[in-house]
Specification:
The chain is an alpha+beta fold. The protein folds into two domains: 39 residues, no CATH class; 98 residues, 2-Layer Sandwich (GMP Synthetase, Chain A, domain 3). The protein is 32% helix and 36% strand. It has a three-stranded antiparallel β-sheet with strand order 1-2-3, with no helix packed on it. Helix 1 crosses helix 2. The longest helix has 23 residues.
Length: 139
C-alpha cells in the first residue's frame, strides 16, 4: 500500500494547505505570529500514533470479545532540544470505557501493539522511547 499527501504553501506564514490521498483537506502550521492555523507537523505525528495504536486496540478488543464502548487516547511527546529535534520520549495513555473489560486483556493487546502491530509506533521508536499506561472505566 502506498500513502500519499500533497500540500501547497502560498506565501503566508508557515501554513500548508494539504490534501491526503483519500481526499481529506486540512491546513497545517501557524501564521506569521506563531498562532496555530491547523495542527503542527509534530502534532500530526502524535495524532497518527494515537489513531494507529487506537485502531489496532479496537480490533484486538473485538477479537478478545471485550465490550468496549469508547476509548480516549492521549499522546505526550518530548523532543530533543537540538536539531533535528526528534521525539525522544513518548507516553500514551488509553482510557477504555465499557462493561466487564478485563485489564489483563487490555495489557495483552497493548503489548501486541507495542511489539508488532502499530507501524507509526515502530517509526517513532527509531528515535524515542515509548511507554503506555491505561485504565478501564466501568459504565
Amino acid at each position: 500500500m502506498t500513502h500519499r499527501a500533497e500540500m501547497t504553501w502560498s506565501g503566508s506564514g508557515y501554513v500548508f494547505d494539504a490534501v491526503t490521498g483519500g481526499g481529506v483537506r486540512l491546513s497545517i502550521g501557524s501564521d506569521e505570529n506563531g498562532n496555530p492555523v491547523g495542527p503542527r507537523a509534530k502534532e500530526l505525528v502524535c495524532l497518527g500514533l494515537g489513531a494507529c495504536s487506537g485502531s489496532n486496540l479496537i480490533t484486538l478488543m473485538k477479537k478478545m470479545r471485550q465490550d468496549v464502548e469508547r476509548i480516549d487516547i492521549s499522546v505526550e511527546a518530548e523532543q530533543a532540544d537540538t536539531d533535528p529535534m526528534v521525539f525522544t520520549k513518548v507516553v500514551m495513555h488509553y482510557r477504555l470505557y465499557g462493561r466487564g473489560i478485563d485489564p489483563a486483556k487490555v495489557k495483552k493487546a497493548l503489548d501486541y501493539i507495542d511489539e508488532k502491530y502499530c507501524g507509526v509506533l515502530h517509526m517513532v521508536n527509531k528515535t524515542a522511547s515509548t511507554e503506555y499506561t491505561f485504565e478501564v472505566v466501568e459504565v
